[in-house]
Design a protein that fits this description.
The chain has helices spanning 79-86, 96-106, 108-124, 140-151, 173-188, 206-218, 235-241, 255-263, 272-278, 285-290, 311-320, 326-332, 335-340, 367-370, and strands at residues 3-13, 26-35, 38-44, 52-55, 60-63, 65-67, 127-133, 156-162, 194-199, 222-227, 246-249, 267-270, 295-297, 357-360, 377-382, 385-389, 394-395. It is 34% helix and 23% strand. It has 14 helices and 17 strands. It binds N-(iminomethyl)-L-glutamic acid.
C-alpha cells in the first residue's frame, strides 16, 4: 500500500475543534499522511516518511468542500435569461422547462460528458464531495438516465422528479405527482440515496410535496426539500416535520420556520450564489444560527439560478452579505455540508476520515474570503487521489 503525505503545512484547519485551536481545530506546522484513500495520521511538519510527498510550502490546508446541493446533469444554456434578469426581469423558475427540453434531446453520452466536465471544474474549485440532483428530465426515461449519470460521479444522488410540472402535464399537476410517486420513483430509486421536491408557490404545494416525500421515504430514500426560496411557505416546516436531512434555500423565513429549524434535526442549507444570481435578498443566517439551528452552504450549481462551481464565491457572499464569520462559513461548506448529507466521513481532516483536502495558495483560510475572485486552490486531493495540483507545488 502506498502512502502520500502533504508536508510542511503552515496552517492546517482540520474542521475538528477537538484536534486544534478554535472552532476550526487549527494546527500549525503540520503534515497529513494518507493511506488507502483515508487520512492515516496528522503529524508535525517535516517528520513524516511516505512514498510520495507534496510540499505545501507553508501554505494553508482545509478539508475539501462538501457541496450538498447541485444540479450538475443538464444540457443547454440560459445565459440570456440571466442577462434579462440583471436588466430587471424577476426569476420565476420557468426556465426549468427550457433546460428540460435541451436535456431530453441531448443523448446519454453528451449528458455524461457535460456532467463530467462540470465535476472536473468543481474539483478544480476544491469541491471534493458533491450531491447531484436529477430534475431536468421530468419523464421516467430521462429522469432515470440523469440519476444513472449522476451515480457515476457521486454516491449522493437525489431524485428530483418533482422539480417542475412538464409541459405535457399542463393543468394536470396531480397526475404528474402520481407519475413521480409511482413509475418514476421506481425507475430512479435504485440509483439514488435521496428524494427532493421543489415546495414553492408555482411548483408543488404542501400536499403534493408531502405525497412525493412520503413515497420516497417508503422506497428507502432520505428526504430533502427546496424550501422558502421565492417567498414564505410551508417547505421548511414540512421538511422539519418529516425529518428531512436538509431544507435548502431558506431565503424567506417566518419566525415559526426558524423555531422549527432550531428544534429539529433538519439542516438549513443556504445557497447565496442563487440569491446573487436572482437578485433575491440573502437569507438571514445570523437569525438561524443564533437560534441554534445547524447550517450548511452549497453552490446550487445549475443553469438557471446559480451557474457557478465556486464555493469560495459562496463563502465570500456568506461572510460579506449574510454576516457569518469566516469560521462559520468554512464549517458550513465542509462539515455543515456533510451534516446535510448525514455523513461523518467527509468535511473534516481526522484519522479515519476520507482523504479529501485542499491546499490553498495562501498562508491562512481567511484568504478564501479576503481575496474574492482569486483562484486560490493550489491542490485538490479527493479520496487520496491528487485531482488538481498547481505546477508551483512540488511532488516527490
Ligand atoms: O434550486 N428552484 C429550483 N431549482 C433550482 C433552479 C432551477 C432552474 O432555474 O433551472 C434551484 O434554484
Amino acid at each position: 500500500m502506498t502512502t502520500l503525505a502533504i508536508d510542511n503545512i503552515g496552517q492546517l484547519a482540520t474542521g475538528d475543534p477537538n484536534t486544534g485551536s478554535g472552532p476550526l481545530g487549527v494546527l500549525e506546522d503540520a503534515a497529513v499522511v494518507i493511506e488507502d484513500g483515508r487520512i492515516a495520521a496528522i503529524e508535525r511538519a517535516n517528520t513524516v516518511d511516505a512514498d510520495e510527498v507534496i510540499d505545501a510550502g507553508e501554505r494553508a490546508v482545509i478539508p475539501g468542500f462538501v457541496d450538498s446541493h447541485t444540479h450538475l446533469v443538464f444540457a443547454g444554456d440560459r445565459a440570456h435569461e440571466f442577462a434579462l434578469r440583471m436588466a430587471g426581469r424577476r426569476y420565476e423558475a420557468g426556465g426549468i422547462r427550457v433546460t428540460t427540453e435541451a436535456t431530453r434531446t441531448a443523448g446519454a453520452e453528451a449528458l455524461r460528458q457535460l456532467a463530467r466536465r462540470r465535476r472536473r471544474e468543481a474539483l478544480r474549485a476544491g469541491i471534493t464531495h458533491q450531491e447531484i440532483k436529477s430534475g431536468y428530465g421530468l419523464s421516467v426515461q430521462s429522469e432515470e438516465l440523469i440519476c444513472q449519470v449522476a451515480s457515476e460521479l457521486t454516491d449522493d444522488v437525489t431524485f428530483l422528479g418533482a422539480h417542475a410540472v412538464p409541459g405535457e402535464y399542463d393543468g394536470r399537476a396531480d397526475d404528474y405527482v402520481e407519475l413521480v410517486r409511482g413509475p418514476m420513483l421506481q425507475a430512479c430509486a435504485p440509483h439514488a440515496r435521496w428524494i427532493d421536491v421543489f415546495c414553492e408557490q408555482g411548483a408543488f404545494d404542501a400536499d403534493q410535496s408531502r405525497a412525493v416525500l412520503e413515497a420516497g421515504r417508503e422506497a428507502g430514500l432520505g428526504l430533502r426539500v427546496h424550501a422558502n426560496q421565492l417567498g414564505e411557505g410551508p417547505g421548511v416546516q414540512l421538511a422539519v416535520e418529516l425529518g428531512a436531512a436538509s431544507a435548502d434555500h431558506c431565503t424567506y423565513l417566518a419566525d415559526a420556520d426558524v423555531d422549527a429549524l432550531a428544534s429539529g434535526t433538519t439542516v438549513a442549507t443556504f445557497l447565496p450564489a442563487t440569491d446573487f444570481s436572482t437578485r433575491e435578498p440573502y437569507p438571514d443566517a445570523r437569525r438561524v444560527i443564533d437560534a441554534g439551528a445547524r447550517v450548511a452552504l452549497a453552490t446550487n450549481t445549475n443553469p438557471g439560478s446559480s451557474y457557478t462551481t465556486s464555493m469560495s464565491f459562496v463563502l465570500a457572499l456568506a461572510v460579506r452579505d449574510m454576516r457569518m464569520t469566516v469560521e462559520e462559513a468554512l464549517l458550513a461548506a465542509t462539515s455543515g455540508g456533510a451534516a446535510a448529507l448525514r455523513r461523518d466521513d467527509v468535511g473534516r481532516i481526522a484519522p479515519g476520515a476520507r482523504a479529501d483536502l485542499v491546499v490553498l495558495d495562501a498562508p491562512s483560510y481567511e484568504h478564501l474570503v479576503y481575496r474574492p475572485g482569486v483562484p486560490l486552490i493550489a491542490a485538490t486531493i479527493a479520496r487520496g487521489r491528487v485531482e488538481w495540483l498547481d505546477p508551483d507545488l512540488s511532488r516527490d
